[in-house]
Amino acid sequence: MFTFSLTKTGTGTAGRLCRIATSHGPVSTPVFMPVGTQATVKTLSPADLEDIGAEIILANTYHLFLRPGHGLIREFGGLHRFMGWDRPVLTDSGGFQVFSLAELRKVTDEGVTFQSPLDGGAKHVITPELAVEIQEALGADIIMAFDECIPYPATKDYARESMDRTHRWAARCRQAKKDTGQALFGIVQGGMYTDLRERSAGTLVDIGFDGYAIGGLSVGETKPLMYEMIEATVPHLPADRPRYLMGVGTPEDLMEGVDRGIDMFDCVMPTRNARNGTFFTSFGKLVIRNSRYERDRDPIDPACRCYTCRTFSRAYLRHLFNAGEVLALRLGTIHNLSFYVGLMRDIRLSIAEDRFPEFKRAFLAKREATET
Amino acid sequence: MFTFSLTKTGTGTAGRLCRIATSHGPVSTPVFMPVGTQATVKTLSPADLEDIGAEIILANTYHLFLRPGHGLIREFGGLHRFMGWDRPVLTDSGGFQVFSLAELRKVTDEGVTFQSPLDGGAKHVITPELAVEIQEALGADIIMAFDECIPYPATKDYARESMDRTHRWAARCRQAKKDTGQALFGIVQGGMYTDLRERSAGTLVDIGFDGYAIGGLSVGETKPLMYEMIEATVPHLPADRPRYLMGVGTPEDLMEGVDRGIDMFDCVMPTRNARNGTFFTSFGKLVIRNSRYERDRDPIDPACRCYTCRTFSRAYLRHLFNAGEVLALRLGTIHNLSFYVGLMRDIRLSIAEDRFPEFKRAFLAKREATET
């Protein structure tokens, strides 16, 4: 089951409020999806994620295919049951990870051959059909078409050739997909070329998907270039389908993405930064190992109501990081994800109350003024 | 504030039920104290510990003296506030850790000089007076006299000489202690010599402490020898003071210790084993990485009601350990500590109901039959 309904069109912005319904419950967009690569959002239990208010998480097909294997997860009734998370899940197609294995892969029109970095270099082939089959076994509510994610910079010829292959793969994914009740999203590619992006959106819409993602961004390009690609794509996507900007990004990126009509985001930034001791706050980033926090009694962010900020001082968190204590990683992750989830809640409220442009302006101004 | 009252003397056992009252709440004994070395029970938040039902935890003076420093913790109002734990805390004296630094230390009657492994080998001296001062700054409800913990085996001459020094240090700790409302426990030493143990107990009782610990056991000796040392000591300790067996041990050790009149235990075994994927269960140990659990849908222990066992399969936990996921460490720790805390609760109930001997017999028989 998958339905998408537009609740409200924003005022003075392309940002909008929508509601996704899945058999594992609803998702209100714009939404940020925490990344749970190996069937766990690193350091957190499902109960932690519910406390934080996460409505949907992402898991990585590539990693779960290699370990523990999609067959095992299917036997357990799918990812939700396997990991004890009963809210919606989205799986990526594995494309992004496979293409990151620069040295280990070979791309043909059929699919991608690669050596696993895990099992002593065993050879695997992922085709569009297999990517769909794996994701059907994993049982996510939303699954993604298999795509090629190209490096930046790339020549226009290479970007076009790769994009055309991604389109052929998208059609094969659409064809291969069984009637599982899962939603299938297509992925717009086209490098940093606005005309390719436009053509990619049009081609995918012609094939017809339940939602559309924008892939291949946040790969090293400048922010203005990223925003330009989003602007070149969104107008060519149907208003009655969700739009998902993959692998993005900073709080500022989320704000700019929403403003340009994006409904869904995912990124490892809040979770990975948390484990490095870098926290997102209402006044910019905070690096907890900084000696200025040695005797600081304040919580990470006095404006935050997460478990970490309700309970612990910066000094204690700094001590945990310096002492290499595992608890530090979880407490930091709880805070950073609470910040992201809270930001999306605030964004939704500001759209609902027709004041998103002011909200965005104030948010960016405050961070510019205090970012250290 | 510290009071100790005997609630019930066991039937057919030296085991007994007692109640400790502190300004951070009560403790029912026999009790197991999870080890929170660096002001955190590794991987767990205070909320986790409360869920598990831990009534008191232990923290290590040596580690906290070196990092973040007892001065800082005093500024924060003590360990309880610093780490967000408002139930009782016991701190050890640092002796055990300092004496583990075999290469780095020099012992004189004054105290111990050692090089810190942390701050580039800075030299520190810990005297009995300083050990008390540090523990007063940390603010634990129960603090320990500074003692020398000798290796095993040790000659009787060495054991006697060291024990006599420990007695002189104990008297100095007693003398140095301010009127802070903290309880001060003395530590019985004497190696593996019953006459020394008896003499040590007598000497410490003459000095007079709020409670008595048995130190220097579980250092490599056989189980029968350990039990012999406990039996040589307990009869010489006053019935109206708590008896604490330091650094012990396995579930079987707890059972045998209680049976011999021990009220308090601490050990890194449940927490350290959990992080290695070795779990304690009602049917013996379970090594989660074993391939037999690859597709196992059962919880770690079907008889356990902890969060981990209520929520996750062995197969999922095995996957988390194999994938190196941090969540595995916490979920395993929640289970192992729940097992230890639950075991002590069952032991107390069996003493209350005058059936400890049968309970012990059945527990040991079951584990012998199923231990793998």
Task: List the defining traits of the structure above.
homodimer; globular; 15 helices; three-stranded antiparallel sheet; eight-stranded parallel sheet; TIM Barrel; alpha/beta; 372 residues; 16 strands
Short characterization:
Two copies of one chain form a homodimer. Chain A is α/β, with parallel strands linked by helices. Chain A has 15 helices and 16 strands.
Would you write up a description of this structure?
- The structure is a homodimer of 372-residue chains.
- Chain A is of the alpha/beta class and 372 residues long.
- Chain A has helices at 46-52, 61-66, 70-75, 79-83, 95-100, 128-138, 156-176, 194-207, 223-233, 251-259, 269-275, 307-311, 314-322, 326-352, 356-370, and strands at 2-9, 16-22, 25-29, 31-33, 57-59, 89-91, 105-107, 112-115, 123-126, 142-144, 183-188, 211-214, 243-245, 264-266, 278-281, 284-287.
- Chain A folds into 2 domains: 2-266, TIM Barrel; 274-370, no CATH class.
- Helices cover 43% and strands 18% of the residues of chain A.
- In chain A, the strands form 4 sheets. An 8-stranded parallel β-sheet of chain A has the order 4-14-13-12-11-10-6-5.
- In chain A, helix 9 (223-233) links the parallel strand 12 and strand 13.
- Chain A binds chain B through residues 38-40, 42-47, 63, 67-68, 72, 75-76, 82-84, 294-295, 297, 307, 311-313, 315-316, 319-320, 322-323, 325-327, 329-331, and chain B through 38-40, 42-47, 63, 67-68, 72, 75-76, 82-84, 294-295, 297, 307, 311-313, 315-316, 318-320, 322-323, 325-327, 329-331.
